[in-house]
Amino acid sequence: SQQGEEDPQALSIQEGENATMNCSYKTSINNLQWYRQNSGRGLVHLILIRSNEREKHSGRLRVTLDTSKKSSSLLITASRAADTASYFCATDRGTGNQFYFGTGTSLTVIP
Amino acid sequence: GAVVSQHPSWVICKSGTSVKIECRSLDFQATTMFWYRQFPKQSLMLMATSNEGSKATYEQGVEKDKFLINHASLTLSTLTVTSAHPEDSSFYICSVNRGRNTGELFFGEGSRLTVL
Fold first, then answer.
1. Tens-place pLDDT, residues B23-40
2. For A42-56, b where at least 16 C-beta lie within 10 A, e where not — what string?
C-alpha cells in the first residue's frame, strides 16, 4: 500500500463481540482517518483523529493514536452483522490534503 | 455532507479504446478532487490529485498520458483511460476533500472498468 500495513488482514467474529483493527503508518501526519467499504462500493468516513489527540469515540467506535509508534487502532464494540465490511485507515503524510490508504482489514460478523 | 457522484458505475470496453469517467461534486465546490484505483481485495491507491483550472498532480509511477485528468469546473473532474488494456481493468474511485486540514473525504460510488 501507499501508507502502511493493517492487521489483521481478515477478522471473523460473532455478533456481539468486539472487533479490533490495527494500522501502522510510515510518515508524520496531521491526522488519521478510518473508513469503511462495503463490497464493490465507495468508502464511508467513520472517524478522524488528529495528531495531537490520543483517543476518540463515536458511538460504538473507539480510535486510538500513538504517534510515537506510528500506529492507530479501531475498536468496534458490540459488533453487528451489518458491520461486515472492509475497514481502511488513511493518513495525510503531513500534507493535510492527499490521503493514502493502508492495506485494510476485512471484517466478517457472524449473526 | 458533500455528495459525490460518479458515472458510469460500470463500463466494459475493448482493448485500445478510451474510456471517460466523470466525478461530480453535487453540493460542494471542489477545487481539488482525488482519483484512486483499487484492485480486487486490495487497498486504494492514490493516482492523482485533480486541480480545478490547472494540471493534475500525479503520484509516482502513474502514467500521465495514460490517465488523463481534466478538472474544468468546480464540480466536475474527469478521468480518461486512454488506449485501455486488460491490465487497466480496475475499480476507479474519486473523492472530494472539503479543504486542507478539514480531513474528511467524501467518495463517489466508484466506476468498475473491464477491458476485454
1. 999 988 888 899 999 988
2. bbebbbbbeeeeeee
The DSSP code for A81 is G
Q: Which of residues 75-94 of A touch B (CB under 8 A)?
A: 88, 90
Nearest to A96 among B43, B100, B104 (CB): B100
Alpha carbons within 13 angstroms on the beta-carbon side of residue A6 total: 29
- The answer to whether the CB of B112 falls within 8 A of the CB of B91 is yes
Quick: pLDDT tens for A27-86.
888 889 999 999 888 899 999 999 999 999 999 999 999 999 999 999 999 999 999 999
For residue A104, the chain B residues in CB contact (below 8 A) are 42-43
Cβ–Cβ under 8 Å, residues B74 and B31? yes
Mark which residues 21-40 of A lie under 8 Å from B by CB: 30-31, 33, 35, 40
Instruction: Name residue A51's amino acid.
Output: S
